[in-house]
Amino acid sequence: MTSLTPHQKAKALKPGSRRPAKELCSECGLCDTYYIHYVKEACAFITQQIDTLEEQTHRRSRDLDNPDELYFGVHQDMMAAKKQQPIAGAQWTGIVSTIAIEMLNRGLVEGVVCVQNSKEDRFQPLPVIARTPEEILAARVNKPTLSPNLSILEQVEKSGMKRLLVIGVGCQIQALRAVEKKLGLEKLYVLGTPCVDNVSRAGLQKFLETTSRSPDTVVHYEFMQDFRIHFKHEDGSIEKVPFFGLKTNQLKDVFAPSCMSCFDYVNSLADLVVGYMGAPFGWQWIVVRNDTGKEMLDLVKDQLDTQPVMSQGNRQEAVQQGIPAYDKGVTLPMWVAKLMGVVIDKIGPKGLEYARFSIDSHFTRNYLYVKRNHGEKLEAHVPEFAKRIVGQYKLPE
């Protein structure tokens, strides 16, 4: 008789039931499986342990005296890139999908954990284990809602898979790394994306209705380096709304409490990270964290145009001025917001400095949120690197 491991004896919570992390639950999906047995150690919002897991994953922690590692985590290389022949319908040029397909086609992995959308709702996430290129392509385009990616962990173990690629965001990846050795895998590859400010499906609807001219036709959107939100619509048109024109007074509570308490914007525990915020407009930002990440990127390097990362401008004054504006829910007239957007786009931070601007803005906001709403967790929950970043600014009480 085969004995069950402790996690297999555990009972998952029913979807929608109260979570161990309570209101800070990011709905990563771990508690929808019998891996809930490890939730106290694994959940990023119960036990924050990025330093320990960096050591486990990358064989070292980030160097806090290195300005780039302080902000962007352990890495071997960074670059800007875009596909020479973009994938039709991809949110960017399709680098993430291309890497996943190459790994599957070359037999490096037997499956890819990614997120498609339900047939009824393009924004309703549907985690799957993709086993064909077509299933991977069906997952292209980011889903800006909380997604239970790890809900498929039981399927992985029961399938007998030994080599797996997981695509996910920071809170999911921290939980995954914490239970990695329990999965019975010979090799785990992790392809991460930077992540900030996810919402519930209801929160997304409020955001779209408050911000877009045509919320029902939005295909995807992104907060871009030109200080505008770019909404792509069904007819292919792009609607641009300046950051400073957001109805902050109506949207302050729309983002998930987990996202308001997160300090892993850059997905520190992935092997390879593909995003956009550290790259010039129109390019993607790639962070190679370890040898596994280099192996993944090398598969597609000949399909990419690349250039070195750059940094320009100074973010700090803009960040400092933005702290009380967000805190008080200031909403500017649209003509003022558009003018500010044009000016800041011309003289404001670009490349890695824009990435630091975004990190500083979110970390200061999130630090205040945790301090005010979960003060008992503040010291243990905020990583040292985040404390150093936040410490550059004067915060309101």
TrEMBL record:
InterPro entries: Co_F420_Hydgase/DH_bsu_N (IPR007516), FRHB/FDHB/HCAR-like (IPR045220), FrhB_FdhB_C (IPR007525). Transmembrane segments: none annotated. Residues 162-308 form the Coenzyme F420 hydrogenase/dehydrogenase beta subunit C-terminal domain. Residues 78-154 form the Coenzyme F420 hydrogenase/dehydrogenase beta subunit N-terminal domain. This is Coenzyme F420 hydrogenase/dehydrogenase, beta subunit C-terminal domain. It comes from Anabaena azotica FACHB-119.
